[in-house]
Amino acid sequence: MKNIMKNSLKQQAQLLLTRDGLFTAAQHLVPQQKISEVAGRLAASKNPLIKKTFVKTFAKAYGITLEEYARKDLADFKSFNDFFTRELDVDARPIDNTDQGVISPADGMISQIGHIQQGQILQAKGRDYSVSHLLADTENKDGNYYEGGSFATVYLAPSNYHRVHMPFDGTLIETRYVPGTLFSVNNVTAQNVPDLFARNERLVCVFDTEFGKACVVLVGAMIVAGIETVATGKIERSEQIQTLEHNIRLKKGDELGRFYLGSTAIVVLPKSAGTEWTQDMKHGSVVQMGQLLGVATKA
């Protein structure tokens, strides 16, 4: 036992001495909520100088151009938030029409994709986390229900289009706001922070679909100034889980919500969907909203 503890401490020390380890450790030390609150106020500001400075600096830093978007001039945006959640041009993202197809809910990169085994979702190589914890189901009902099901985790980089759309047809029946930490959600943090997506602030959207109950989880992150959906509006942060009931029918490709600054969207499907992910969808695959991820073969 002493040798195991000694080896574990040695591994942690070695990690801290790496660049990735220092980046991860720093996130434990900074006041995550306060930083995000300050960023949120600045991002929402309509002061011309603040807005212009933030928008132009950000667009230059991330090489963002507006050819695909409805508004073509940086001066057309009222605030940094307005710019960050900019809407696409009509038909900029064709929605795949494969029968029973499941599409990407957002532009970004596949962080992980696969099947739920023993109630666990793959976060990164060597790291799993509980689906029931992700969905904040205290009775573990959802964890049992999704056993043998499927998941797809899409990471949205700062330069991406930041609206989240429906990956399938469904009726939104519940939203569940879950307070939590605000770690970064990039690959470095995913590899080094246990239970990252089940620890961070998130909004669980639950749907009735033709293949059973399915979820889309919008996960917050460091400096994320807010999460918004078509059913809830912008979510007010709280220290308690907040559950709301809905009855809103949405079609595949319809807008579901948006992030104010970057984050991650996780699609969770039941075993009854019989989801088969396409062979080219794997860790690191770049995707666009509307692109086919897989097919619900039992729907």
UniProtKB/TrEMBL annotation:
Cofactor(s) needed for function: pyruvate
Record: active site: D107 (charge relay system), H165 (charge relay system), S263 (charge relay system), S263 (schiff-base intermediate with substrate)
GO cellular component, one term: plasma membrane
Annotated EC: 4.1.1.65
Spans through the membrane: none
Main location group: membrane
Lyase found in the keyword field: yes
Signal peptide: none
UniProt modification remark: Is synthesized initially as an inactive proenzyme. Formation of the active enzyme involves a self-maturation process in which the active site pyruvoyl group is generated from an internal serine residue via an autocatalytic post-translational modification. Two non-identical subunits are generated from the proenzyme in this reaction, and the pyruvate is formed at the N-terminus of the alpha chain, which is derived from the carboxyl end of the proenzyme.
One annotated GO biological process: phosphatidylethanolamine biosynthetic process
Subcellular localization: Cell membrane
Pfam families found in the cross-reference section: PS_Dcarbxylase
Site (Cleavage (non-hydrolytic)): residue numbering on this chain: G262, S263
Reaction it catalyzes: a 1,2-diacyl-sn-glycero-3-phospho-L-serine + H(+) = a 1,2-diacyl-sn-glycero-3-phosphoethanolamine + CO2
Stated role: Catalyzes the formation of phosphatidylethanolamine (PtdEtn) from phosphatidylserine (PtdSer).
Assembly mode: Heterodimer of a large membrane-associated beta subunit and a small pyruvoyl-containing alpha subunit.
NCBIfam families in UniProt: PS_decarb (TIGR00163)
Protein name: Phosphatidylserine decarboxylase proenzyme
The gene coding this protein: psd
